[in-house]
From TrEMBL:
This is histidine kinase. Its EC number is 2.7.13.3. It catalyses: ATP + protein L-histidine = ADP + protein N-phospho-L-histidine. Gene3D superfamilies: 1.10.287.130, 3.40.50.2300, Histidine kinase-like ATPase, C-terminal domain. It is an enzyme of class 2 (transferase). Residues 154-371 form the Histidine kinase domain. GO terms for molecular function: protein histidine kinase activity. SUPFAM superfamilies: ATPase domain of HSP90 chaperone/DNA topoisomerase II/histidine kinase, CheY-like, Homodimeric domain of signal transducing histidine kinase. The modification 4-aspartylphosphate is found at residue 58. It comes from the Bacteria.
Amino acid sequence: MEIDFSTYNILIVEDSELNLFVLKEILEREHFTVFSASGAKGAFENLGNNRIDLILMDVVMGEKNGFDLTAELKSMEQYKHIPVLFITNLKSADDVVRGFDSGGVDYVSKPFNKKELLQRIKHQIKLIESGNTIAKQTAQLQEAILNRDRMYAILAHDLRSPISSLKMILNILTMSPESSNTGYADMVNTGNDIAEQLFSVLDNLLKWTKNSLGVLSYMPQEIEFDEMVKGVVETLQPTAKLKNIDIQLTLESSLQIFFDVDIMKSMLRNLLINAVKFSHENSLIRLNLYRDKDDAVVEFIDTGVGMSLDAQRQLQDQIMEEGKITPMREKGKGLGLWVVYHFIQQNGGAFFFESEEHIGSRFGFRVPLLDNPSNH
């Protein structure tokens, strides 16, 4: 790694004019930019006026010794990252330990050897250079991730509208008597199912990326919960029909919540799609909505494939790790449930699930009711 030493600034804190002259001569021949101070006051003046990359610190000085000055610098946020290399006559083990305890990274004994001094200084500069390279690469990676998320958001937004229109057209066709008379009913239902799944994926992706970018708008309003549930179920009936799955609704009426309509619909759609996906043909999904104290509880209960304990642990780890991109780790696996968990947690609710392999699963969430005193 080729390093341009002229871009690095070194501060020498030394009260001996002779030592200071020799050190400056050695370092300037290596093209370092050198600043100097005879004590603590001058050191702080230089630090305040210049970017300092490395400090060569004398230990025995008049007003304040180098160990105490280093400890003071390391206690200050703006200076604690600057490596300090001691130049000292003190050679006892206790002095060496004290130097490291105060925050020093290395030391050179007086009278110093020029080659040893330069080797130790250049070693520290190489560490700084490596750290700067890593920081630069990290910033570039973060920018690349940010640009990727922006691209995801743009793609999902641009595709969501035409897929939504296609979904509505196919949904209307599935309910039209004319389509069943043409013999294309199965094809229309299949097309509707595909459009529904595509819309769900794009919707989840859009919410995830906008949330990651901090640009997701949240506009809560009063919602008649049972009416919303009925509406979501109606749009997904064709998907359930493909597997001849009956959706049994038990909905308590007059339950009002204060939530973003679009996000709530996404959560209900995700849970119902999951229940249909993992249910057997000719089976039943029970969808219950009821009051439990100050909360409204929604649960989707199927008698499908269920999950092993290990699969449940993996799912829980994947969707409940806040601030991480785990939902995108395996081809989008868990993204829909992540959307449910994240927005329920964010808005004072709780997500839950339980499952038994070969028996079925129960997924759902609870959310505060509008008449909950904590919502006023």
